[in-house]
Amino acid sequence: MKTLGMLLFLSLACLACSVKPEPIAFGKASCHHCKMTLMDPKFGAEIVTSKGKVHTFDDINCMVNFMKEKALPQEEISYLMVVDMAKTKELIAAQQAFFVKGSSVNTPMGSGVVAFAKVEPYEAFIKEKGGELLTWKQVLDLF
Amino acid sequence: MRDTMRNRCVGVVFYVSALFLLLSSGAMAKEWKLSPKQSIAEVVEQAQAGDTLRFVAGVYKQANIIIQKPLVLLGEKGAVLDGSHQHEILVLAAEHITVQGLSFQHSGRSSLNDLAAIKCLDAHYVRIINNQFDNTFFGIHLSNSNYALIEGNTLKAQALNEYELGNGIHLWKCKNARIVKNTITGHRDGIYFEFVTHSTIQENISTKNMRYGLHFMFSNDDEYLNNTFKNNGAGVSVMYSHGVSMHGNRFEENWGESSYGLLLKDIRDSEVIDNQFLANTSGIYMEGCSRTQFHGNEFKNNGWAIQLQASCNDNTLERNNFQGNSFDVVTNGVVVLNTLKNNYWDKYQGYDLDKDGLGDVPFRPVNMFSTVMERVPAAIVLWRSMLVFLLDRAEKVIPAMTPENLMDNQPRMKPYDYN
């Protein structure tokens, strides 16, 4: 019984310190850069540090500016996530996402950059709303 | 003599022609009476510029009505335009349109488009007066429209999820707008400004909105006066703007984890004067705020009256009342570049021997324990304990953790009467 309890405790302790992205609580969470409350589940981003701290952002320019201002070193960032506009609320890795800038859609902090996980939805989006395709590297240089 | 004659002649000609113009235009303007069975779009098509469309009582289940000429839309009592939860209701795309006394309900919701009950596109000089909006996604949505008057409207929305809500009154890239005496409840942001300049927001009541009562972004040289912001998700937020005058507003009961009465972020050359901050988690939270005047405000029963981040400088806090707040001023830095003068602090324990109404010893509003809490928020469980009391006293005598320079040299002995 004692060992079982010990095991349970250990597994719980491991759970608590695992580093992984967390879903964004829209309506409650606030942006760690501009302080605005996150409302629109089409937009949003998240940084998870190697220590497991989660920073949420309402717009992609907030995330990029936060990284630059805090000068976060690469090795301290475990995850860089952005919201998939086609699937709202779902987070995808920024390095693998497709970004569109310059469409007619307004983002919460005016960056105008939205992210997609797959090719078809972003192509359909560009057809309807305009804009051009960017890679994550280009997005980093934008702000 | 000849000159005056000529002047008189010119005058007479002018008056006659003015009268003629007036009469002729009066004769041309026509009034159209609409009933729910008629097609609004058809009447709009037939109407001439300057005509009036009068809506008799009834529910008009018609949407996407686009108006591209200066018309007056008048609603009689009980005239309701219904968007059937799918469409935008009115789109105004011409100058000098008036919409008065109508009810709007059930506009469509969309995750991609900002569907609104009334949308104005490049429509200058619109007047939207005394209308009612029930359960619309966005209520009134203006883009690129200058000199708008939005007065006496009532907007109410309800939704379970935050993304099903739009803003009550939403302005984007507008100039010289006036937003007066509206009541906005249950929207995402009550009033939203982005790239709006030289505009006035006056005597509105904005309550129970999901995010902010009023939200300013990149909007310069605006003023908001005598409004009430109560019980909103996070109060009022003014960001990335300059030249904003905030006078005589009430910020009440904005409670919550990341909630404030007023959030100032990257603001300069602005004024916060004669406002009341009552029972908010944080009265004012400011970050990157400079050259701003805070005069004659009343801070009562807030958790924090002012959270002053170290990135703020050159601000002046003068003649304010601080009463019944758990913490008066909190800061996260040691260097302080702001001025505090002649405020009333109910926590001041000094004396006034020369009887000039001002205390003889300075008051340091930053409490040691609040500095600890800035670093370790969970420490609040120790608040009001004996240990904390002793530490605070020791800190008052020999300041070690709190910024030494952040003090009011001449605190007032009695509160100002701002009622």
TrEMBL record, chain A:
<feature type="signal peptide">
    <location>
        <begin position="1"/>
        <end position="16"/>
    </location>
</feature>
<dbReference type="Pfam" id="PF05573">
    <property type="entry name" value="NosL"/>
</dbReference>
<dbReference type="InterPro" id="IPR008719">
    <property type="entry name" value="N2O_reductase_NosL"/>
</dbReference>
<protein>
    <submittedName>
        <fullName>Nitrous oxide reductase accessory protein NosL</fullName>
    </submittedName>
</protein>
<keyword id="KW-0732">Signal</keyword>
